[in-house]
Design goal:
single chain; about 425 residues; alpha+beta; 4 domains; 6-stranded mixed β-sheet
């Protein structure tokens, strides 16, 4: 331990006594001389001791800092939700050239908004606990805006004399994507098995009928209506296979700007004859100057055609269908198809969109499943609400390109 503090203070005490001896002619060796020198020796010893431990602590801190900086996992310290320290791995994780680029920034700048509440609750829990809090997952973003998933453990510490949070984590994006791929593969295999069983069941019924009538033909029991039934059942098989191919066939869709009200008018015109034959009136209520959407025209027309056809078939006694189109918020457009049909039982709503779950006597459910798939590919949402004997409301929400002014216009078809 360096004793420079003691030496300096003793020297000052002796020099002061010598000054008094020369200029004031005081005695040199007095009781005050010994007291002052003793105090100088003690204070100097304490000063040297403090400097020694301070230097040792500084060296230890520097060693710990170097150790943490060399760790492969991100380590950082936050106080009042701002970064006070981050190691090199943490800087690399968020795309910073060095840790100085993120010091002082708010941690919420690197967290997606939907995870902010989770992070705040986590902070409250950490400050209450005196031991490391279990890992939790966040969706985070780098300085360039790219997303990644981050798993982190945290502990409440004292840093710079104030309460802070020490966090240690790792990037789990690859692991999460691999898990997601495995889940999707598992779901696809389960769906494939379900669809295969459904197709086999749906096709077996008309095949049984065809087989029976062929046996009648062999027995020379041929009637004109038998041929019609056989052809009808063959057409049913063809329809089932056709729906399945539309759903399963990969297509390279070309998205272009379109006016949704024009698409709907075309579809209503197309299905107009069927609606008249079934004593159904279709009303369109849309807002003028609606923002355009980016879509594959034929796919969206297929969706509207399927939904309107379902609505007509749900009203065997006739009735009214309303199609309402409006902008619900900036960047989103709503298309509602409202019928006065027989409705769908509440317990069946959750199965809609699944293959071979249908309310129709000879339906396959593939048509509605195709609608869900097309709307999903357009980054939209399709929801269904229904009340038995009152009717069904189907709403499609699609992203828009522009957001013009809104003026109501009524059209009767």
């Amino acid at each position: 331990m360096n004793r420079s503090g003691q030496i300096i203070l003793l020297f000052i005490s002796i020099a002061f006594t010598a000054y008094q001896k020369i200029w004031a002619h005081y005695a040199f060796f007095t009781i005050d001389f010994f007291i002052f020198n003793f105090i100088a020796w003690v204070v100097g010893w304490q000063y040297d001791k403090a400097r020694f431990f301070e230097k040792k602590a500084r060296a230890s801190e520097e060693s710990y800092r170097k150790l943490i900086d060399s760790l492969p996992d991100p380590v950082y310290i936050t106080q009042d939700h701002k970064f006070l320290y981050a190691n090199n791995a943490a800087a690399r994780l968020v795309g910073a050239s060095n840790n100085k680029d993120i010091i002082g920034k708010s941690i919420f700048e690197f967290i997606f908004p939907e995870y902010s509440d989770r992070l705040m609750e986590r902070f409250k829990q950490i400050m209450k606990e005196e031991q490391p809090v279990n890992t939790i997952e966040y969706k985070a973003k780098r300085l360039d805006g790219s997303a990644f998933f981050f798993e982190v453990s945290a502990l409440s510490i004292v840093f710079g004399g104030k309460e802070a949070i020490l966090s240690i984590g790792k990037d789990i994006t690859d692991r999460k994507e691999q898990t997601e791929r495995m889940l999707q593969k598992s779901e696809k295999l389960a769906l494939l098995g379900q669809m295969a069983a459904g197709i086999a069941h749906e096709i077996r019924n008309p095949l049984t009928s065809i087989k029976g009538f062929i046996q009648l033909f062999k027995a020379n029991q041929q009637k004109e209506e038998y041929f019609d039934i056989v052809l009808s059942e063959l057409e049913r098989i063809n329809s089932i296979v056709g729906e399945f191919l539309v759903l399963a066939k990969p297509t390279a869709a070309v998205y272009v700007e379109q006016e949704v009200n024009v698409l709907i008018k075309d579809v209503v015109t197309l299905i107009g004859t069927q609606s008249i034959l079934n004593n159904v009136e279709i009303f369109i209520d849309f807002e003028q100057d609606l923002p355009k959407i980016s879509c594959e025209e034929n796919q969206l027309k297929q969706v509207f055609l399927n939904l309107l056809k379902n609505a007509i078939e749900a009203m065997p006694q006739g009735g009214k269908i309303e199609v309402k189109v409006k902008q619900i918020e900036e960047g989103k457009i709503s298309i509602k198809i409202i019928d006065q049909g027989i409705g769908i039982p509440k317990e069946r709503l959750s199965t809609l969109g699944e293959p071979f779950y249908t309310t129709k006597e000879k339906g396959t459910g593939l048509g509605l499943m195709t609608c869900f798939k097309i709307i999903e590919s357009h980054k939209g949402v399709l929801t269904i609400e229904s009340t038995v004997n009152e009717g069904t409301t189907i709403e499609i929400i699609l992203p828009t390109i522009t957001q013009p002014l809104l003026i109501n216009e009524q059209v009767y078809v």
